[in-house]
Amino acid sequence: MKQQLEHIVNNFRAITLGEMDSVSLMKRTDTKFVIHEKDLISVLKEVKDEYRILEIDNQRILTYSSLYFDTPSKKFYHDHHNRKVNRTKIRMRKYLVSNKCYLEIKQKDGKGNTNKTRIPVEDFEPDLSKKSLEFIQNTTKQNFDLEPIIWNQFNRMMLVNTKAKERLTIDIDLSFKQNSSKKAYKNLVIIEVKQQRFDRTSPIVQKLKQRQINPYKISKYCIGMLSIYKGLKYNRFKKKLIKINKITA
């Protein structure tokens, strides 16, 4: 299946990082879909003329590694679980193909918008530097007691609509770890459509709809936390876990 995916991905027209600046969409609406990897292959075949794919150093399936931070009480996880509309995620993400690393803050507002702010850092900082702590405090207007809580890694394809201001991220080979605990999700694909506002005429949304695949709210961070930490409150995520386990079985 991986060979099929690579073959299809190589049939897309490429786009460079510089060309993607016009669709950076740091303030946006994110809409997610969860599918099996076998469905991804057929969808990509049908939309290959509607999107270009990010290519860096001749690579189109790019590896990302992230380190998430939370408080000792796991505030960010519980805010998400309890459906708090204004919530925050803080992570460091490394783009392995370019060896660039960023401290990123994602903030959701009550209108469903996501604001993403970031600064470059030299490398992962399990112990946050003074500069990083100041950036977090200035951005969030809060003083969180933060600790490294979970690592994750995945492979990503990034597509850009040739006609509309729309980007897609397609994540596969998702895995999590913290200390000696590890969890990998095979066959799971998370597609995230990033737009100024949700547009159902998007080619990828249309093709997914034809397969009766509808938008599905899911957080890689929360799923990872449940995979690694036992005893977390998860009643509102129970159906999501059942769906994911069915896909990855």
UniProtKB/TrEMBL annotation:
<feature type="domain" description="VTC">
    <location>
        <begin position="27"/>
        <end position="228"/>
    </location>
</feature>
<dbReference type="InterPro" id="IPR018966">
    <property type="entry name" value="VTC_domain"/>
</dbReference>
<dbReference type="GO" id="GO:0006799">
    <property type="term" value="P:polyphosphate biosynthetic process"/>
</dbReference>
<dbReference type="InterPro" id="IPR042267">
    <property type="entry name" value="VTC_sf"/>
</dbReference>
<dbReference type="Pfam" id="PF09359">
    <property type="entry name" value="VTC"/>
</dbReference>
<protein>
    <submittedName>
        <fullName>VTC domain-containing protein</fullName>
    </submittedName>
</protein>
